[in-house]
Design goal:
The protein has 314 residues and is of the alpha/beta class. The chain is 35% helix and 15% strand. It has helices spanning 56-68, 90-104, 120-123, 125-128, 153-165, 177-188, 214-231, 248-257, 283-296, 304-310, and strands at 32-33, 35-37, 73-76, 109-112, 134-138, 141-144, 147-150, 169-174, 198-201, 238-242, 261-264, 300-301. The strands form 3 sheets. The chain has an 8-stranded parallel sheet with strand order 4-3-2-11-10-9-8-5, sandwiched between helices. Strands 1-12 form a two-stranded parallel ribbon. The termini are far apart.
Length: 314
């Protein structure tokens, strides 16, 4: 058969619909996104970022500015203003949280670490004093830089029970994939922690899951998510991803694309972007990046009550 005899089928314009749109199912991504701001922490000091807040006045100012810029929640640490080291003194934590509660009430959710003494009862002071509504349980054993960060299972189990007895929601903080298995073995399988859970993924800091380039960031976050789905009893785990290390605003964007929540601020990173040397000058910068990303992706900052409802908090 010659070329001139080959039959041709030519589609007529508009003879058929270009695409059957009923097969394009809407993605199951929540409109609201919880944006938590962590104004300062224990790892980054002023040698890494000279803008790091140390004093209670600085931390309070940064916290208020973050809320006014759109943050749903705050994760609070206090520091010794002279040395920048983490402080377990009780007055500084009150000097930050009491004014926040007075100004914002239930508009926001306040959380922080229960690390306030030398014995269990002292450590749990902010829980008993009802300073927090949420607080992390770190199911890890790792070196953060040169420091060993490890929580034995009996302590984590006792802390989780104590949190829940006092109306505080435990947040499962994971730094490496093995921490997810720890959470399952120590808290979920023995039914110590009450569902629904909030998972806090904290990668990309020294000692945590590496994210040294865009591909590593995407692979690592998806790996975390899949392992969490294997042990979380709900269909849609509530996951918050920290803008840690060099991943900074890029992991915030990826987390929002996946439908997750984010934690931003100067506790987790000093960088605005992973491919530049731009240092964060204020926490508001990171909150504004997050809110702009949310808007561009058709999402919006959640309210405090939406956050509480999602986690079954009263």
């Amino acid at each position: 058969m010659g070329k001139e005899e080959i039959p041709l089928v030519i589609a007529q314009p508009y003879a058929l619909p270009i695409m059957d749109l009923k097969y394009q199912v809407k993605w199951d991504i929540p409109e609201e996104v919880v944006i938590t701001a962590a104004p300062t922490g224990v790892i980054v000091d002023r040698s890494g970022n000279p803008n790091q807040p140390y004093s209670t006045d600085e931390i309070l100012k940064e916290s208020m500015a973050a809320v006014d810029a759109g943050a749903t929640a705050l994760h609070i640490h206090t520091r010794d203003p002279a040395t920048g080291l983490y402080t377990t003194d009780r007055k500084p934590i009150h000097d930050v949280i009491d004014p926040l509660k007075k100004k914002y009430g239930k508009k926001i959710v306040i959380g922080g670490e229960a690390l306030f003494g030398a014995n269990f009862e002292e450590l749990m002071y902010p829980i008993k004093a009802k300073l927090y509504e949420v607080s992390p349980v770190n199911t890890c054993g790792m070196f953060i830089g040169d420091a060993l960060f490890a929580n034995p299972p009996p302590f984590l189990q006792a802390a989780t029970k104590y949190f829940q007895e006092h109306g505080v929601k435990p947040q499962i903080a994971v730094y490496n994939p093995g921490d997810i298995d720890n959470a399952y073995r120590w808290l979920i399988k023995p039914k110590i922690i009450e569902s629904p859970f909030e998972w806090i993924i904290v990668p990309a800091i020294p000692g945590a899951m590496p994210m040294t380039n865009p591909g590593a960031m995407a692979e690592a976050l998806l790996f975390f998510e899949r392992r969490i789905r294997e042990v979380d009893p709900t269909d849609k785990p509530f996951i918050t991803v920290c803008s840690s290390g060099r991943a900074s605003s890029y992991i915030t964007a990826l987390a929002m694309l996946l439908g997750h929540n984010v934690r931003v601020g100067m506790e987790d990173t000093i960088y605005r972007y992973p491919h530049k040397e731009d240092i964060l000058k204020t926490n508001v910068e990171s909150v504004k990046i997050a809110t702009k990303l949310a808007e561009a992706l058709g999402r919006r900052p959640a309210t405090g009550d939406e956050y509480r409802k999602r986690l079954g908090m009263k």
